[in-house]
Amino acid sequence: MKHSYKDDFGRVELEPLEEENIESLRVLRNRERKHFIHTDIIEPLDQRNWYERYLHKSGDIMFQAMLQQRFVGACALYGMSDGKAEFGRLVIDRESAGIKGLGFDTTACACKIGFEQLKLSEIWLKVLSDNIAAVKTYEKCGFLLLEEANGISHMHIRYNEFERKMNGWRSKY
Fold first, then answer.
1. Does a structural domain hold residue 1?
2. CA–CA distance, 96 with 66 (Å, rounded to integer)
3. How many domains are contained in the chain?
4. CB atoms within 10 A of CB 5
5. Which residues lie closer than 8 Å to 168 by C-beta, 6 or more apart?
6. Could you list the residue range(s) of the whole structural domain that residue 39 is in?
7. Reduced to 3 states, what is the DSSP secondary structure of residue 49?
8. Residue 43: CB partners within 8 Å, gap ≥ 6?
9. For 53-79, what is each residue's pLDDT tens digit?
10. Global pTM?
11. In a domain, 89, yes or no
């Protein structure tokens, strides 16, 4: 949905996904599809149609991750209901960014927006259990494992846990 939420954390700034970056997102998503639960190739027309539907879908906000005003990835908070949302669609262009840890910065920033601006009480996610780098990133952000089934880890974080983590990070960032 169209939104105006934005914030920064560490080295990234999250802002609303702009139409000018949906092709870069598509190419990046296709390149990294092995890390996603749904691994289908996305064609340009499919991406455009998805973006048009997304603009009118409530409870679904996409962010573009920017590093020094350059697109380096994306993520989303979606399925928002009753103070909860799912975090996902995280993809970072590590090749062009040339910097490690942007997944952490992006995830932490999305949680910061979710808890501080959207007033969520809980954020949850699903991740492939064998995607060790992603699981470690989410654990570093404070996500806790709820269950693992069929190769998918279900994790969540509540506001108070995130706030405790943020207090520790404030001295570093």
1. no
2. 12
3. 1
4. 16
5. none
6. 7-170
7. helix
8. none
9. 999 999 999 999 999 999 999 999 999
10. 0.94
11. yes
